[in-house]
Amino acid sequence: MRKLSQSEFRLLIFFSAAVFLAANLLAAKLWMTSRAGLLREITTLKNQVAEDRSWIAAASDFDSAKEWIAGNPPPALASDQASTLLLRTVREAAEAQGLVVTEEALLPSEGTLAYPSTTLQLKLSGSFSSIVHFLYALQKPGAWRAVNKMSIKSDATPPNALVEMQIRQYFTEPGRSAAPPES
User: Which DSSP string do the residues of 62-131 spell out, in sequence order?
Assistant: First the structure.
C-alpha cells in the first residue's frame, strides 16, 4: 500500500471526522426520538393513574351517597300528590319571603334512572336577598328538591330581581322500590 500524501491524509481526516459527526448526530436524533416517546408514554401513564384515582374517589363518594340515600329515601307519593306538594311548598316559601309569583306551570312528570320526578316552571320577582333565602329554604337534601334551570335578571327597581327557574321534586311511587338501581 502506498503512503498517503499530506493533502490525501487531511482529506481522510476530514472525511473520518464528517462520518464520525454524522454517526453522532444520527445517534443523538435516535436518542432524542426515543426520549420523546418515553416522555409521552410517562405522561400517558400519569394521566391514567390520575384518572384511576379519580374513579376510586368517585366510587367511595358514590358509596357514601348510597348510604345517605338508603337512610333518607325520597317521599313516597303518587305523581299528583308530588306535584301538589311541590306547588304548595314553593308558594308557601315564596310567600314567607315576600316574593311575588308571576307565573307557574307544572311540567309533565318524568322518570330518571333512579326516581320519578315532577317539575315546576316558575317566574317570580322580589328582592335579591329574599330570592336567596327562598332558594336556601327550598333546597334541602332531605326534601329531594333541586333547581334545574335558573336565570336572574335585574328588575327596573333595584335591588329587586326577576327569576325564571325550574324546580324538580323527586319522589317514589307507593309500592315501588325506594332504592336506586345498582350500577
Answer: HHHHHHHHHHSPPPB--HHHHHHHHHHHHHHHHHHTT-EEEEEEEEEEEE-SS-EEEEEEEEEEEEHHHH
What are the C-alpha distances in Å from 35 to residues 23, 28, 89, 177?
Answer: 18, 10, 64, 57
The C-alpha atoms of residue 75 and residue 85 are separated, in whole angstroms, by: 10
- Is the CA virtual torsion 87, 89, 91, 94 positive or negative? negative
Q: Using alpha carbons, select from 119, 120, 132, 116 the residue that is nearest to residue 91.
A: 120
What is the reported pLDDT for 10? 93
Single-letter amino acid code for the residue at 28: A
Average of pLDDT values for 101-105?
93
Reference 168, options 67, 92, 74; nearest CA is 74
Q: Which residue, chain included where needed, has cell 340515600?
A: 69
pLDDT tens for 114-167 read 788 899 999 999 999 999 999 998 988 788 998 989 999 998 887 889 999 999
